[in-house]
Design a protein that fits this description.
Helix content is 38%, strand content 20%. The chain has 399 residues and is an alpha/beta fold. It has two domains: 141 residues, ATPase, nucleotide binding domain (Nucleotidyltransferase, domain 5, 2-Layer Sandwich), CATH 3.30.420.40; 189 residues, Nucleotidyltransferase, domain 5 (2-Layer Sandwich), CATH 3.30.420. Helix 1 crosses helix 3, helix 6 packs across helix 15 and helix 10 crosses helix 11. The site of adenosine-5'-diphosphate has 13 residues, from helix 10 and helix 12.
């Protein structure tokens, strides 16, 4: 039986692979190719406890990386076990509220949507086309980061701009990290022992990129990332919410070019910009412990802004079941979770300190006090969602 799905996540200079058994959810082989398009391009393959890094050959591109991974699967006699390939695609616009079987038309649409995600969709498309060349006869599915948020109502997704900019140019909030919010929401429903359709949740995905989503009766009704993944929370290197007039000031009064502003907002701000040290939360926690004032300020701002966003989403509910933390920071940093939760006592959130300290490194559990609203730490697994949804769609299409 073909029970395995190959999940591919293509960035502009990297590709992540996982071969996942959909019956057991086990990752059989994983790989990551990095520094593509440069002579330093390499690929690391992990199978069970065995990890091996190899240099890639010219032209050091996505096809070379995908061929290398497929050769590895051939050597392990696993290629014939693949039922389909699932691709993470960042932007599905308003076209896709669910995964799509990849056809010529779907590729054209992903390409058209590149205007909304110029850094991501072209790379995703490169991955799809390279996979077609390497494994041409297998069905491929696109799973979109934006799909889960297509249930947001207009009052949540529109900006207060002239309406024709939405109608003619698709300018609106799309939201991202949808696959992650979907996964943790469903996992929380299991843990709460309730059908997802009866669950009201706020999930906070805190990693290098950060977002909060309000999930009412299992559906996303608001989210903090916007037209691009720059809006909302303070992130590793991104500003999050900012007064847009600062752009005019930087350009007109301080002589920045628009390209420089773009770099400043996306790559030099957030934790990195305030701490003047690092975008890495671990490093900042260590530095703050040793008295680094800017590291402390960056962490305080990060938590205050996250708490403020979470509290603001309380307007979406008349009753709330749980707050969820996920992502590299949300899953591991008891310090950040404590700081955020302590600012949310009006939402009836009280931390259980022991449970909070214990919930790290892949552990899942409730970190709230017994009298409090529950607060779950749930490790995210976007690859598992892509594998499951790909498999379900391929089975449905071939019935
Ligand atoms: P990405 O958005 O790139 O997928 P991740 O979800 O892997 O990022 O999150 C990366 C962030 O998680 C970094 O800021 C890192 O410092 C933080 N992180 C990982 N482990 C820990 C930890 N044990 N304590 C605090 N922060 C952690």
């Amino acid at each position: 039986m073909k029970n395995n799905i190959l999940v591919i996540n293509c960035g502009s200079s990297s590709v992540k692979f996982s071969l996942i058994n959909v019956l057991t959810s086990q990752v059989l082989v994983a790989g990551i190719a990095e520094q593509l398009t440069s002579e330093q391009a390499s690929i690391t393959i992990k199978q069970k406890d065995n990890k091996q890094q190899s240099r890639l050959i010219s032209p050091y591109d996505h096809l070379v990386a995908i061929n290398f991974f497929v050769d590895t699967l051939n050597q392990l006699q696993l290629t014939s076990t693949i039922n389909a390939i699932g691709h993470r695609v960042v932007h599905g616009g308003e076209t896709y509220s669910a995964p799509a079987l990849i056809t010529k038309e779907v590729k054209q649409e992903i390409n058209r949507l590149s205007t909304l995600a110029p850094l991501h969709n072209p790379a995703n498309l490169l991955g799809i086309e390279a996979t077609e060349q390497a494994l041409g006869d297998l069905p491929q599915v696109a799973v979109f980061d934006t799909s889960f948020h297509q249930s947001m109502p207009k009052k949540a997704f529109l900006y207060a701009l002239p309406y024709h900019l939405y109608e003619a140019h698709d300018i609106r909030k799309y939201g991202f990290h949808g696959t992650s919010h979907y996964f943790v929401a469903n996992r929380a429903a299991d843990l709460l022992n309730k059908p997802i359709k009866a669950c009201n949740l706020i999930s906070a995905h805190l990693g290098n990129g950060c977002s909060v989503t309000a999930i009412r009766e299992g559906k996303s009704v608001d989210t903090s990332l916007g037209f691009t993944p720059l809006e909302g929370l303070m992130m590793g290197t991104r500003t999050g919410n900012i007064d847009p007039s600062i752009v005019f000031h930087l350009v007109e009064k301080l002589g920045y070019s628009l390209a420089q502003v773009n770099d400043l907002f996306n790559k030099e701000s957030g934790l990195k910009g305030i701490s003047m040290l690092s975008n890495d939360c671990r490093e900042l926690e260590d530095a703050a412990k040793n008295g680094h004032e800017h590291a402390q300020l960056a962490l305080d701002m990060f938590c205050y802004r996250a708490a403020k966003m979470i509290a603001s989403f309380s307007v979406c509910f008349s009753r709330l079941d749980s707050l969820i933390f996920t992502g590299g920071i949300g899953e591991n940093s008891s310090y950040i979770r404590k700081n955020i939760v302590e600012q949310l006592s009006l939402l009836n959130l009280q931390l259980n300190n022991e449970a909070n300290l214990a919930m790290r490194f892949g552990k899942s559990g409730n970190i709230a006090d017994s009298t409090s609203l529950s607060c779950w730490v749930i490790p995210t697994d976007e690859e598992a969602v892509i594998a499951t949804q790909t498999n379900q769609l391929v089975i449905k299409e071939t019935l």
